[in-house]
Amino acid sequence: MILSVNGIAVAVEADRLAELAAAQELLRQRAVAVGLLDPSVEDEAAVKSAIEALLEKEVVTPAPTGAECRRYYEQNPAEFESGDLVHARHILFQVTPQVNVPQMRARAEQALNTLLAEPDRFAAMAAELSNCPSGQHGGSLGQVGRGDMVPEFEKALFKLGTSGILRELVKTRYGFHIVAIDQRIPGRRLPFDIAQEQIVARLRSRVEEKALRQYISVLAGQAEIEGIHLEASESPLVQ
Predict the structure, then answer these.
(1) What is the DSSP pairing of strand 164-165 with strand 225-226?
(2) Is the dihedral of CA 64, 67, 69, 71 positive or negative?
(3) Is pLDDT of 237 > 50?
(4) Where do runs of H (alpha helix) occur along 118-228?
(5) Distances from the Cα of 108 to the Cαs of 12, 118, 130, 178, 234, in angstroms?
(6) In this structure, are residues 164 and 181 in contact, taking their beta carbons and an 8 Å threshold?
(7) Residue-level pLDDT at 48
(8) Lowest mean pLDDT: which of 97-106, 112-121, 125-134, 221-230?
(9) Could you tell me the pLDDT band of residue 220, with boundaries at 50, 70 and 90?
(10) Are 178 and 163 contained in the same domain?
(11) How many CB atoms lie under 10 A from the CB of residue 79?
(12) What pLDDT digit, counting tens, does each position of 77-110 carry?
């Protein structure tokens, strides 16, 4: 590809977009024009530093107002909610290609019935029967959040209202599980005061991206570019 900006040839590396190469050359030439970079300088780090100084000087990115932050907070509640958590234990009866599945299921059901009658034996039976390393720790899985486990196991953990030893086996790709849910910690929404800094950073990033696109568009409207099309505008008020 033959690419030039104001008569200056621009090399486009195989893993780089031509549009990006053209935009960087526009910014380099502008940095030279305003005295931030000597035209003879080719050092990549120096050019990058000059472009950063140029953008800081000429691209205005106002901070979002408190009202804008509040509006974003109210319109995107899911982004500021901590997930539900459970403290759970399990006993795994692992199914492998060599296992007789009906026999394994019958063994798991027998153990479940025993535990429903004698729940205090859970830790001892986990140590004796579980094919999961957690068996040596009473079957404890610790604190579990959504997305931490395979979907079929997660569905059982977060089923509304369930607690204690589940009365049915949970079947997953790994085998049959006896599951006990010891504690539920419902998710909560972060207060606006805590979320505001995060919102400011997110909204400012959007504004910066839009302002940069507008700025490059104006530079492109004032330049002669061959080999690639960049959205161009002659007006600094481009929307």
Answers:
(1) unpaired
(2) negative
(3) no
(4) 122-129, 151-157, 192-221
(5) 63, 15, 10, 7, 74
(6) yes
(7) 92
(8) 221-230
(9) confident
(10) yes
(11) 14
(12) 877 877 788 999 999 999 988 889 999 999 999 9
Task: State whether 117 and 167 are in the same domain.
Answer: yes
Task: Return the amino acid letter for 20.
Answer: L
How would you write 35-83 as a 3-class SS string? CCCCCCCCCHHHHHHHHHHHHHHHCCCCCCCHHHHHHHHHHCHHHHECC
Instruction: Give the number of other CB atoms < 10 A from CB of residue 211.
Output: 16
> Do 197 and 176 share a structural domain?
no
Per-residue burial over 125-160, b if 16 or more Cβ lie within 10 Å, else e, is bbeebbebebbeebbbbeebbeeebeeebbebbbee
Q: How many CB atoms lie within 10 A of CB 98?
A: 5
Q: Is residue 166 part of a domain?
A: yes
239 has pLDDT over 60: no
* 141 and 102 part of one domain: yes
Q: Which residues, other chains included, contact 39 with Cβ-Cβ below 8 Å and sequence gap of 6+?
A: 32
141 three-class SS: strand
- Per the CB < 8 A criterion, the answer to whether 220 and 73 are in contact is no
pLDDT at residue 58 tops 60:
yes
* Number of domains the chain is built from: 2
pLDDT at res. 14: 56
Q: 10 is in which domain, residue-wise?
A: 4-72+192-226
Q: Is the pLDDT of residue 16 over 60?
A: no
Q: Whole-prediction pTM value?
A: 0.50
